Amino acid sequence: MESPPEERKLFSFLDNLGILTQTYRHAPVYTVADAQEHCSHIPGGHSKNLFVRDKKKQRALAVVDDSLTVDLNALAGKIGFNRLSFCSTDSLQSMLGVLPGSVTPFALVNAQVPKGGKPALTVVLDKTLMSHEIVNFHPLHNAATTAIKPADLVIFIRACGYEPVLLDIIPTNLDKF
């Protein structure tokens, strides 16, 4: 199967950074439950990726271990935002260039910060997820999963112009996602 154009753009960017990845093809997955069913054979940590905003329209991409339940209010406080809600599909597409079900830190390749510019969002990385030897994300679409070393993910994020915030995402029973 030939790679979609958006995937080729991502892989070219990663290649230019000298980052090695491995990609696994599978049926499209739209939820964490779908991914656990179709991708559990892929080694490494798996994620849920939350594209959220507060009332001031500050945005964040939270990249969290898929086993954790996220308290959005606690997350908001940790990153200095007000109450969080999910961004609209239009905002997701216009800012990150992906569809719901395909949210991924790799989408930052579509939202690179111009030299000297200010990042349009905060990137939050979960310490639990980043403790794995390998972490897995969609390569801008949900019919594949790409494995990358956590240190290389940070290199990629910085090359896109963002300084990720590494946090302990403490699971709770509030605002489950």
From TrEMBL:
<dbReference type="Pfam" id="PF04073">
    <property type="entry name" value="tRNA_edit"/>
</dbReference>
<dbReference type="InterPro" id="IPR036754">
    <property type="entry name" value="YbaK/aa-tRNA-synt-asso_dom_sf"/>
</dbReference>
<feature type="domain" description="YbaK/aminoacyl-tRNA synthetase-associated">
    <location>
        <begin position="26"/>
        <end position="154"/>
    </location>
</feature>
<dbReference type="InterPro" id="IPR040285">
    <property type="entry name" value="ProX/PRXD1"/>
</dbReference>
<protein>
    <submittedName>
        <fullName>Prolyl-tRNA synthetase associated domain-containing protein</fullName>
    </submittedName>
</protein>
<comment type="similarity">
    <text>Belongs to the PRORSD1 family.</text>
</comment>
<dbReference type="InterPro" id="IPR007214">
    <property type="entry name" value="YbaK/aa-tRNA-synth-assoc-dom"/>
</dbReference>
